[in-house]
What we know:
The chain is an alpha+beta fold. It folds into two domains: 12-181 and 484-702, Chloramphenicol Acetyltransferase; 195-233 and 249-483, Chloramphenicol Acetyltransferase (2-Layer Sandwich). Helices cover 41% and strands 12% of the residues. It contains 21 helices and 18 strands. It has an eight-stranded mixed beta sheet with strand order 11-7-6-8-9-10-1-16, with helices on both faces. It has a six-stranded mixed beta sheet with strand order 12-18-17-15-13-14. Strands 2-3 form a two-stranded antiparallel ribbon. The chain starts with a helix and ends in a 7-residue tail after the last helix.
Amino acid sequence: MLFTTSYIARKGLCQVLRSSSSCGWISSGSSPACTAPSAARREHYNSISATHATFGARRYHYNISNWMSNTRMDKYTKESCGSLHPRNSTKMPLMSAGSSPYSSFMAQKDTLPRLPVPDLHATMHKFLKSARPLVTAEEYAVTENLVNNFIQPGGVGETLQQLLVERAARLDNWLSDWWVDTAYFRYRMPVVVWSSPGLVFPLVEFKNDTEQLQYAAKLIAGAVDYKDQIDNDRIPIEMMGGKEVDMSQYFKIFSTCRIPGLTKDSVCHHSQDPDTPKHIVVMHRNHFFRVDVYGKAGKLLNPEQLVSQLQDIVRRSTRDAAPVGILTSQNRNVWGQAYKILMKADKRNADHLQTINRALFVVCLDNVVTPSTGNPMTDAALQCVHGGGSKGNSANRWFDKTIQFIIGRSGRVGLTYEHSPAEGPPIANLMDHIVDYIENVKHKKLLAAVELSRPQRLQFTVPSELDAEMHRAGDVLDSLVEDLEMTCFIFESFGKNFIKSQKMSPDSFIQMAIQLAFFRIHKEPGAQYESGSTRQFLYGRTECIRSCSYESVNFCTAMLDPSYTPKQRLDTLLAAMQSHKSYVQQALKGHGVDRHLLGLKLAAIEAGMDVPPIFMDVSYNRSSHMRLSTSQVPAKCEAFMCYGPLVPDGYGCCYNPRSDSIVFGTSALNSSPETSSATFRDALETSLRDMRDMLLTTPKAKL
């Protein structure tokens, strides 16, 4: 299979290759059923695979937080519309007193180290090691020869490495511009499912419409309160290993919006404009309303006043408007053309689009209840990820907005965020703050704004040529909605406290359980992506942690082979976790494999050189085809992040380790004859329990 240049460069260098899994169709039961898929489903699956081979399978990646605790082994600059420097950060306290606005954050440009260019030989050695368990001996021998030719003295590898060194000498971060350009702005698949994650808040129940609006009002007030803390420098600098981490992403999550282009997107960021935006946009039944959240005297509206504004919006939007919002769910080239038509159709359209772009965030009041899966967590996740389709709430969205909160009449609450400006942790911290604010708002004495401006309706003039486009967008999205299978659940048998009691890292433990679950289903290892943060560097973002290793395969084999004793299985688990720990430490220091390989390949393309053969090799392709896209996104409350799989025959798996439970959001594609998120859940729960039982049968005194 041939891959386009932009695709090969995409997100961890993931190429779509059909898996050689021995089992065909996976049922939604507790065990795989190897029966043939229907011809229609197989045709649909092949279509998706071909699409990904052309456009790539984009997936966001998050950092892990507090990844290593008590191991059981010895062992930002203002931008307008244009490119956006990617940033990253981690978990942090809710609030803290600070100094002058921006001073702490902006000083980091002079104090944080720059992202290093890893050693060429070290990277290629790690690449070979990570690819070995995924290929045959014959395939590995070919790869080894290609690597040796690539790194030979005076060879193409050294030439490309020198180009990276020179780039690093003249830029604050040699990777950041390349990264946001290839991973986001040139990626043309829809942001829905393929890029934008959902974050599900703790489940709530609304007895009536008023309670929904009261909750929404408190949520709005809490979000604006958090923005005020950022603007007034009341967010403490985070630390990692005693060192400051880059905090600039926090300035990029409000008043930010992605702008579609014909071949490449851009982003507009307005929170540091001289006339700082003081409004939000509220959507209800596909209508758009501008709501000023500060009164004319400059005071923040209190929740009671916000309820009044929301009630006015609901009264003025009793019927569905034209589904303009659903256009944002389309392929980026298609949406870029429609955006251009919409802008030119009426000057007011351009003004309305600018109002949306500049808004602090979007609030989506949903009253359409889509069919239930029978699982409230999964129902909420699907609303946050895609909104349920054209007959659901998907037109009541603006998927280009960095933050849009979802408040459903049924109690499905959360947010969807466009991923290019920030990683998950700042968004999770925002969510934590809002939940805390909602629970304690009755204790806050909020001053009311003296005067209120009535919400302004943003009435788009929709040219007739976009009628068919909106219908087409709905059809495309409905197909994707039907294809995405999600299974979200709380694993209640134990949580991170038990794992820590065994002197093990909860993250490493869960990563091995995920690998074991895959192995249990497919009888083979799968390339596994876990995101590690490089935020200790200026404008650092993420690096891929390749969790699948020779050691993890040995562990999976031991756990499924009855001839191994508990002690032998434990030994393989410790070795696998030690391998994971080693890779994590290297990745966090900027010495992973994937970003360096991406840089080398882009350096060749930028210099007009041929792409080296190593990037077309089967080992490179297979070890970059991440069938497991995983991330730990901790939250203080019982919330979780969720997203679609990275590749058509893969799984998405995001988790929030709690003291005595683990919250999971898993996904797969129904069109894949090989995967099922329901089956994956069963295998994952079984793997976690088997690992616990193995530990409990191994005397601690011998560890």
